[in-house]
Specification:
Blueprint lengths: L5 E4 L9 H10 L5 E6 L11 H7 L8 E6 L7 H7 L3 E5 L7 H10 L3 E6 L5 H4 L8 E5 L15 H10 L4 E5 L7 H7 L3 E4 L1 H4 L4 H17 L3
Parallel strand pairs: 1-8, 2-3, 3-4, 4-5, 5-6, 6-7, 7-8
């Protein structure tokens, strides 16, 4: 299957007391999926929401593709609960579990979810290379995970570029500080799955911003590579 442009707003930046309304609004405005940031207060300093919240959201956005971005020390622990909550793609950080990544990947697949492998800015590509062929997506963090509103790190683009050159059909995701200004850097490097937080959530015209982000993927990533 050829790669396609996918824009997934991070709902963490939305008004969480109105999670369903905010999620539905994003979907109505052209979001391809919802990116759900799950933090455990251990692997990253912040604490967000977990599977009970996602399980409540799922029936209200029946057809939405949900990606849970697991910024957790023990991704193993949450595979079954997230599958039960209706998550479509389980994206976890390899750093705390580097020795058991194949086992975790297998369990995620067995539970019926797609597999995403995430790496922090300081993690070299070497660490993720042995596992790429078994993943559906690789997420290159363009900020330190755990906090919103950080400055985009353009020096992560060589990772994206290498992945695109070596895995032309892989879904390559970027997350952190991506907006209508930084998007071009990401898409020229080869990212086709874009997570945007405040840039979309706080936009006066969400539909317009999502369309701009998608256009950048189509022009710079898909037609070029």
């Amino acid at each position: 299957m050829p790669i396609r442009a996918q824009i997934g707003p991070s709902v963490l930046n939305a008004d969480l007391s109105r999670l369903y309304e905010e999620s539905q609004k994003l979907l109505d405005n052209g979001a391809d999926f919802l990116h759900l940031d799950v933090m455990d207060g251990d692997f990253v300093p912040n604490l967000t929401f977990g599977h009970p919240v996602i399980k409540c959201l799922r029936p209200k956005v029946k057809n939405a593709f949900l990606e849970s971005h697991m910024m957790v020390r023990n991704p193993h622990q949450w595979i079954e609960p997230m599958a039960d909550a209706g998550v479509d793609q389980y994206t976890f950080h390899i750093e705390p579990v580097i020795k058991t990544v194949p086992d975790i990947v297998r369990k995620i697949k067995e539970s019926g979810m797609k597999v995403g492998l995430a790496i922090k800015p300081g993690t070299p590509l070497e660490d993720v290379k042995p596992f790429i062929q078994d993943a559906d997506l690789v997420l290159v963090m363009t900020v330190e995970p755990g906090f919103g509103g950080q400055k985009f790190m353009s020096d992560m683009m060589p990772k994206v570029q290498w992945l695109r050159e070596n895995y032309p059909e892989l879904d390559i995701e970027v997350d952190g500080g991506v907006n209508t200004t930084t998007i071009e850097t990401c898409t020229k490097a080869g990212a086709n799955v874009i997570v945007a937080g405040t840039a979309v959530i706080n936009a006066e015209d969400q539909k317009k911003v999502i369309a701009q982000l998608k256009e950048s993927v189509n022009v710079n990533c898909i037609h070029r590579h």
